[in-house]
Amino acid sequence: MNELEEVPIALSGLTLEEIEAFVLSLGLPKFRARQIHTWIYVKYAGSFDEMTDLSKDVRDLLKLKATLSSLELAHLQVSDDGTRKYLFKLADGKLVESVLMSFEDRATYSACVSSQVGCAVGCTFCATGYLGFKRNLTSQEIIDQVLAIQRESGHRVANVVYMGQGEPLLNVDEVIKSLHTMINSVGIGARHITVSTSGIVPGIERLAQEDLQITLALSLHAPDSELREQIVPITRKWSVEDLMDALYEYYKKTGRRITIEYVLLAGVTDSAEQAKELAMLVKRLHCNINLIPYNPTEALDGTVLYKRPTLEAQRRFKRFAESTGKTVTIRLERGTDIDAACGQLHNAFENDQAS
Ligand code: SAH
Ligand code: SF4
Predict the structure, then answer these.
(1) Is the pLDDT of residue 339 over 60?
(2) Other C-beta atoms within 10 Å of 181: how many?
(3) Which residues are near ligand 1 (CB < 6 Å)?
(4) Which single residue of 33, 81, 96, 159 has CA 20 to 30 Å from 111?
(5) Are 194 and 215 in contact (CB under 8 A)?
(6) What would the pLDDT profile of 197-252 be if each residue is shown by its tens digit?
(7) Structural fold of domain 9-67
C-alpha cells in the first residue's frame, strides 16, 4: 500500500459517536451509524454483507473504506472444560491473549481481556511480566476482544474481567473509556466487570472518580511491603500502607466491596503466620479475599522460580485468613490443560460473589 492510499478503519469496538463521525465523513446520513452499531454490538455481525438493512451501495462503500474487526484470530485453543483461549493479532502485528470461560453451575460466560501488550510491572511469578512492556491497547482493541469472542463462539458474554495481559491502571485513560463502552454499548452490567490492578495508586484514585459500580481487585500477594517488594517490584513506589489508604478511599467514594487477590507461592507467601497478618491487615476494609494457587510459569531462561502449595497448605492458609470473619475463596481452575492463563488466567466466579 503506498502512502496516499487510505488505511481502512476498523469499526468493531468503536463508540456510537465514533461510528457517527465515520459515516458522516463518508457523506452518509447519521442514522446509518445506529444501524451499524446494532449489527456490531447486538447481532454480532461478522461481515458488512450481513447488514441487510443497509443498501448494497452502502455495504460496498463500507467494504472499501472500513473493516469490521480490529483483531484477527491468530490461534484458538479449546480446553476439555470448554474454556477457549484466543490469541489475537493486532493491526500492527502484535499479539494479545483473551479467554472465554464458563462455569458448570452457571449458564453464563466470562471473558478475560488484556489491557496492554506485555507489562512493565515485572512481577516475578508472571509470564506477562517476563515479556516486558510492548504497548498500550486502545479502548477499541479492549472492547473488540469481547466482540470477537462473541462472534467466534456465538455465546453472549455476561462477565468481563480485566485480568489478561498488562496492568490496566498503567493504561488508565483507554481502560476507563473501554469501561464506559463495555457498559453502554456491549451491555455488560457494571457489577459484572472486574478490573484487577497490581496497585497503581494514582490509577485507583482516577478510577474512584468515575464512580462506577464495577469491582476493583487488588493483587496484594503479600501482607507486608518488604516481602511484596520482592515479588511485585512496584511496591517500591507505593507501599502496602499506601495501597490500603487508596482502597479505603475507593470504598468511601464508590461503596463497592474490594477483592483482595493473594497468590500462594509455596514457602514464600503461604505460611499460617502470613495468613494471620493478611487477615489483620485487611480487617477494617470492606473486602473479600481470593487466594490464587500459583500456576507454574517458565521464565525466559526456562526456569520455574516458585512452587504451587499443596492443597493442604492452601486450605490451612484459607482457615487462618478467615480468622477476622472475611469471606475467603480459593480460585477455581479453568482450562489448565491448555494453560489458559493469560499468563495468569483468573476466574470471575469469586469476584462475582464479591458484588
Ligand atoms: N496486571 C493486573 C491484572 C492481570 S493479572 C494484576 O496484576 O492485577 C490477574 C491476576 O493473576 C493477578 O492477581 C496476578 O498477580 C495473577 N497471576 C499472574 N501470574 C500468575 C501465576 N503464574 N499464577 C497465579 N496467579 C498469577
Ligand atoms: Fe503485570 Fe499483573 Fe503480570 Fe504483575 S501480575 S507482571 S502487574 S500482568
Answers:
(1) no
(2) 22
(3) 123, 125-126, 163, 167, 196-198, 219, 261, 263, 292, 294-295, 297, 343-344, 346
(4) 33
(5) yes
(6) 999 999 999 999 998 999 999 999 999 999 999 999 999 999 999 999 999 999 99
(7) DNA polymerase; domain 1 (1.10.150)
Quick one: which H or E segment has residue 319?
helix 311-321
Among 97, 167, 174, 350, the one annotated catalytic:
97
CATH architecture group of domain 72-354? Alpha-Beta Barrel (3.20)
The domain locations on the chain are 9-67, 72-354
| pLDDT averaged over every residue in the chain | 92
Distances (CA, A) of 212 to 142, 182, 278, 346: 18, 12, 27, 22
Asked if residues 39 and 47 have their Cβ atoms less than 8 Å apart, the reply is no
DSSP assignment, residue 48? G
Cα 330 from Cα 84, distance rounded (Å): 22
242's grid cell: 499506601
Residue 300 gets the label, from left (phi > 0), alpha (psi -120 to 50) or beta, of alpha
Radius of gyration in angstroms for the set of CA atoms belonging to the chain, rounded to a whole number: 21
pLDDT at 39: 98
| Number of H-type helices and E-type strands within the chain | 12, 14
- Sheet of strand 193-197, all strands in order from the earlier edge strand to the far edge: 72-78, 84-89, 95-102, 109-112, 157-162, 193-197, 215-219, 258-264, 287-293, 328-330
Do 9-67 and 72-354 show the same overall fold?
no
Active-site annotation holds for 342: yes
Give the binding-site residues of ligand 2, using a 6 Å CB cut-off. Answer: 119, 121-123, 126, 128-129, 166-167, 198, 219, 344
Task: Give the pLDDT band (50/70/90) at residue 350.
Answer: very low
Atom of ligand 2 nearest to the CA of 129: 6
Active-site residue identified among 119, 123, 342, 350: 342
